[in-house]
Structures are given as C-alpha cells and as structure tokens.
Amino acid sequence: MANIEQLLGENSARVSLELEKYLKTPEKEVDGVYDAMRYSALSGGKRIRPFLVRSFAELFGGTEEKAIAYECAIELIHVSSLIYDDMPCMDNDDYRRGKLTNHKVYGEALAVLSGDAMNMKAFEIAASNDKTSVESRLRAVLLLSGLAGGVGMIGGQHIDIISENKKVDFDSLLNMHSKKTGALIRASALLGCCAAELNDPSDERVKNAEKYASGIGLAFQIKDDILDVEGDEKILGKAVHADEKLDKTTFLSFMSIDEAKEYAKRETEKAIDCIKQYNGSEVLTELACWLLNRNK
Amino acid sequence: MANIEQLLGENSARVSLELEKYLKTPEKEVDGVYDAMRYSALSGGKRIRPFLVRSFAELFGGTEEKAIAYECAIELIHVSSLIYDDMPCMDNDDYRRGKLTNHKVYGEALAVLSGDAMNMKAFEIAASNDKTSVESRLRAVLLLSGLAGGVGMIGGQHIDIISENKKVDFDSLLNMHSKKTGALIRASALLGCCAAELNDPSDERVKNAEKYASGIGLAFQIKDDILDVEGDEKILGKAVHADEKLDKTTFLSFMSIDEAKEYAKRETEKAIDCIKQYNGSEVLTELACWLLNRNK
Fold first, then answer.
1. Which residue in chain B is spatially nearest to A153 when comparing CA positions?
2. Which tens digits make up the pLDDT trace of A14-30?
3. If you average pLDDT over residues A150-168, what whole number do you get?
4. Which residue ranges make up each domain of chain B?
5. Among B195, B221, B262, B281, which residue carries the largest CB count within 10 Å?
6. Which chain B residues are within 8 Å of A40, Cβ to Cβ?
7. pTM score, whole prediction
8. CA nearest A15: which of A78, A60, A61?
C-alpha cells in the first residue's frame, strides 16, 4: 500500500481540482466573493475530512465519483469555519498555513461574506450530487447542517470562546473538542457512508464509522496538546507553548505527557478496533496511526 | 377578505411560534448561540418572505402545514443576513427595528456564530420537512443555497459594499437589488411552489411565481428609495434623506419621483398580471398593492 502521506496528498490535489471548478467565478459575476472563497479554499492543507469521506465511501462499496461532492462540501464548511475563527473578533490571527488570513487580504466584510457563500455552496454541492440517491443527498444535507450547527461545530467554537481565561473541567474540555473539531470529523465518516448509500443511522457499519471518527478526533486533539509542548517549532510551522502562554486548559492540565500519550494511543486503538473487521480498512488504520504519530 | 396587514401579522406570529420551537436551547447545551439566534429571529417584523411562501403554497394546492418549515428556513437565512449586514465591518448599525443589533448585545464573535448557526438551522429545517416529498425538500435546499449564495443575496451584498461612494450605472443598480433583496423574495415564491410539490422549474406556474416575485421585489426597492425622500421619519422609524447623505445611487439618481412612482406601479401591475389567472390569487394581489402603497 502506498504511503498514507502520498495518498493524502493525491486526494487533496483531487479535491482542489474539483473545488476550483465549483468556485470559478460565474460568467458576468463580480469577482470579489469568489476570489476570496478560492483564496482560502484552494490554499492546500492535508484535507483529512475529504479523505475520510472517500475512504469510508470506498470501504462500504461506494466510489470516489459518488464521494467527491460530499468531500468538497465538508471541506468548504471546514474552511469557512477557519475564516471565521481567524477574524479579529475571534482568534485574531494574521496567518494560516503561512499565508495571510482571509480578512487580512480581503477585509472583514468580504471574509464574512465569503465564509457565508462557502457554506451555501457546500449545501448546493451536496444537494446536487446526482451520483447518489435523493435519500443520500438529503441525509448529507442533514449531517452537514446538524454537525456543523449550534449543537456541533459552531456550538464548540462558542464554548471555546467563553472558556478563555477560565478554569474548565475535564468533561467540558471533552465536550468542547467533541464539538469544535470532532463534529465535522464524525460528519466526514458519516458522509462517506452516505456516498455508499448507507443512509440508515442504525446500520452497524454507520455506527462503527462514527465511533472510529470519534476516536481519531479525540486522539488528534490530545496529540495537538502534546505537540504544543514537545513539538519542533520549525516542523510544526507555529510557535510551541502557545497554550501555556494563553493559560488554556488542555489535556495536559489533567495528566502528564506520558499519560496523555497513552490516552491518545488507547483512543486510536479503539478507533481501529471499530473498522478492522471490514475488508479494505487498512487505509483507515494507517490514517489513525499516522495521525497519532505525526510530528506536525 | 381580511385586511392584508392583519393577515401578515397573524402569519408573522405563527412563524414566530414555530421558530421559538426550532431555536429552543437543546438540553445540556450552552445557551449563548441559541440565545443570540432567538434575539434576532424572534424580534418580529412583517415576515414578508414567509408570507410569500405560504401564499404560493396555498395558491397551488399546498397547505400551511407543508409550507411552515420552508417559511422558517427562508426567514432564518434572511435574519442571518441582517445580522451580518449590521456588523461594524459592513453597515455598522447599532439599531434595527428599534432594538440594539445582535453584535451590540452579544459581541461580534457571537454575532458571526449565531448568523452561521441560523443558516445551518435553515438547511436542517428545510431538509427535515417531512410533510413534503424528498424531491421537494432537495429542491428547497437548492433554492435556498443557490439564491442566498454568491450569485444571489451574498453576491448582492458584496456589490452593495463595493458600490459605496461610486457612480453606479442603472443596470448595475438593477443587478444589485435583484440579488441583494430580490433573490430571497424569488426564493420565497419558489419555496411556496415547492411546498405545493411544484418542483419543476419549467412549470408555467413556477415561472409565473418567480416573475411575480421579481416584480414586487423591484417595486419594493423603488418604493424604498421614494420613501427615503418623501417618507415621514416618525412613521418610517428611521431618518429620511439617508441615501442622499451617503451619496448613494438610487432609482432617483436616474428619474424624477413621479417617474419612479410610475415605474413601481408598472412593475406591480406586471407582477399581478402573472398570477391573477389563478383562483385564490387575491391575497397576492393585495400584498403587491399594499407593498406599493405602504408609507413605512
């Protein structure tokens, strides 16, 4: 099997090509909003969420042709949330992935509008996925809107904001992460099932896909906190000890580094246990291990 | 027939009741985002868009039970766009309908998040409308995402922003209004058709619904510009001559007040011509006339 980084890279390029088509400025339209959308949506990245969509689609008998629309949809919602997160009223970041953030280039008004337009485009793409059944498309819309919404990602962003400079207990920390980043990771796995026409949430395979996603999502966050302490600034591409400086509650507020490593490993193993029974699940096993062992 | 203002008031109250249910803070959830959503979504208003959805649904054999979900969905997308429009980076307004704007009460971060969450909720509600077929629900999602998106409402907001302090020609003015406010008004009429299971855009009734909406949307804008010049501040609830002070291009930049009145009247008549052939269209005729003759 090809190296997981290579597979991720290839899929990210494939998603970029497709997003380029979706985000082309329509004829006779003013360029601004589309330009701002392309700036953020085509700036690369690992595109873990699309990769999950495609991998689960293929695991359960779907094809990449059925998956690609849902891959683009979830990526757009993710990128939109990053644009908002970077804004002065939220995290006030000037750079992301080494590039100026959207509002630094286009101004705040266009940042708000392009994030908004990306979300709209995501639903348009998902609802137009004519490679899948109408049931699959409708479920995709529900997964995206539900898991990105007030009880999902957006709810998590809010909890993150109000938790600043506050003591947060362990359950609240878990809840915040489960929503802020976990929700879209679960949505990705579930969208993959959708692309394979597994539209029944009570299906054992769908449940296992969601459990796998919960596990790697949690492990990912724990690993993030570990890297903030022992990562290499040059490899990470960002300053370390940021959490400490901001007095942020992290997993390391509740356990030692070794315990955190053990915790992340256990969650990864539990995730793998959910999917290893399925033929072709090796790529998802590799992904989980790679996320656990990454150094950036 | 009951007075149109009474019908509008009754329907607005009905939509508010339903939105209250949709926007109730779910159990165990932090209140912030939902609180901010309710603040803006339940602050009343005429709710013209929901009224259009319902009226077209009933005109074409649908019921208010089929329409209500789509009514709430379009209203949420509309309200979300108002929250964004009021933000400091856009129009920087402190008041709307006599109440402090969302970001003045909740801060900009929560304003962005609650607008975002409202859009998500809108798609969730539309895709869950189990009183209609899956085809109707999918088309509703496509109408909302397409007409609110980069070539629709959001595109119009952007044209509005970049047109500030600039000479705008007549076609550009028409294009801006047709998108910024026109697109959601057309979406409303089309969603009403959807609720009546008229999901084929080539259906003559669907085309007429859209033409009616285009006509009253344009007349509405022309009237707005007229009221800004000859309206009564006390009745309007806002300062007049605002366009002039901001050196804004309006319909009155291209014609006299009398010509503008004639123009709005003609568009209203054309709109009415599109629907008067249908039994039960009186309420839509009344609505068009009322919008033309309103003094606020």
1. B117
2. 999 999 999 999 988 88
3. 92
4. 4-293
5. B195
6. none
7. 0.97
8. A78
